[in-house]
């Protein structure tokens, strides 16, 4: 469950939603999907002081947690291929709905109980379908995963997600981020200019070729979805069976509870606070039960 305090984004003049609220509404709309590799919304509702989004419970942990528990592990090639293919499906679906994800990283990729990918956290998604040219220029994301055009404040679209996919796959193959630096400005400089090293002992030729295509700094020359699907790295992937979850995952999910440090409970004071406050009612978050309403992936107009 995602719980958001209304005071974080309601303006003093409550007639119009703020920037953060628009993002939250977009997130809620994106969650109204029936895609096999995207987190799905089951309920949304609000009280006087909070907004609630109730989503799938994914017990297998995140890719980042797997790396941490296994001492920054290097994933086997078959694991990388499987995760990459399911992420291509997930991102491709979002793009077909006019949405740029903009925050692809290991902690946002969850593994379910059967070892399949679930992409989550749509808080900074951007619906560019309604924008002129289908592009935006807002600056947001995780520094070491940002595409060069975002750092340069250029307009961009879906191609930034393919760059971030390249960064994630590089991390899975080598155990490290090619651009990371504790100093954010130095990190940006690495993204813009640093020569990317592809260690042959860790990265196979076909994966290296894919990474070259994804980590191309010129967005016009960067690999697009159809090129990615046809790449030799995915030659053994049956995309139809993959999207139907008919391919068994090679990934063993973390046991339930392996990543829980403590149990969080609402105190009586917090429960009382939920029912108090003077914030405006937000129409988009009136109680919605979608558990029996979703039968197919949303059309483009369902994300508006």
Explain how this protein is built.
The chain is α+β, with helices and mostly antiparallel strands. It has two domains: 97 residues, Phosphorylase Kinase, domain 1 (2-Layer Sandwich), CATH 3.30.200; 181 residues, Orthogonal Bundle (Transferase(Phosphotransferase), domain 1), CATH 1.10.510.10. It is built from ten helices and eight strands. It has a four-stranded antiparallel beta sheet with strand order 1-3-2-8, with no helix packed on it. Strands 4-7 form a two-stranded antiparallel sheet. The protein has a two-stranded antiparallel sheet with strand order 5-6. Strand 2 and strand 3 form a beta hairpin. Helix 5 packs antiparallel against helix 7. The longest helix has 20 residues. The radius of gyration is 20 Å and the shape is globular.
Number of strands: 8
* Amino- and carboxy-terminal Cα gap: 23 Å
Return the average pLDDT rounded to an integer: 83
Number of domains: 2
């Amino acid at each position: 469950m995602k719980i958001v305090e209304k005071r974080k984004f309601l303006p003093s003049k409550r007639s119009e939603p703020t920037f953060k609220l628009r993002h939250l509404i977009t997130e809620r709309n994106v969650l109204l999907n029936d895609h096999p590799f995207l987190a799905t919304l089951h309920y949304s509702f609000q009280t006087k002081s909070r907004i609630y989004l109730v989503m799938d419970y994914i017990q297998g942990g995140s890719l980042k947690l797997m790396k941490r528990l296994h001492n920054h592990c290097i994933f086997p090639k078959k694991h990388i291929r499987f995760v990459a293919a399911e992420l291509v499906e997930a991102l491709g679906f979002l793009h077909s709905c006019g949405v740029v994800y903009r925050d692809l990283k290991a902690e946002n990729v969850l593994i379910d109980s059967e070892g399949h990918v679930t992409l989550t956290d749509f808080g900074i998604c951007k619906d560019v379908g309604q924008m002129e040219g289908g592009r935006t220029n807002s600056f947001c994301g995780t520094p070491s995963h940002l595409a060069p055009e975002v750092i340069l404040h250029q307009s961009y679209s879906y191609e930034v997600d393919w760059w971030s996919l390249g960064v994630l796959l590089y991390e899975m193959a080598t155990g490290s981020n090619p651009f990371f630096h504790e100093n954010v400005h130095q990190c940006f400089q690495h993204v813009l200019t640093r020569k990317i090293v592809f260690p042959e002992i860790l990265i196979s030729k076909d994966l290296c070729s894919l990474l070259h295509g994804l980590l191309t700094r010129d967005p016009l020359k960067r690999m697009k979805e159809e090129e990615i699907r046809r790449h030799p790295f995915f030659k053994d992937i049956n995309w139809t069976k993959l999207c139907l979850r008919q391919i068994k995952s090679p990934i063993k999910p973390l046991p339930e509870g392996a990543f829980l440090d403590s149990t969080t409970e609402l105190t009586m004071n917090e429960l009382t606070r939920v029912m108090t406050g003077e914030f405006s009612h937000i129409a988009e978050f009136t109680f919605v039960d979608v558990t029996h309403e979703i039968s197919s992936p949303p059309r483009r107009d369902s994300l508006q």
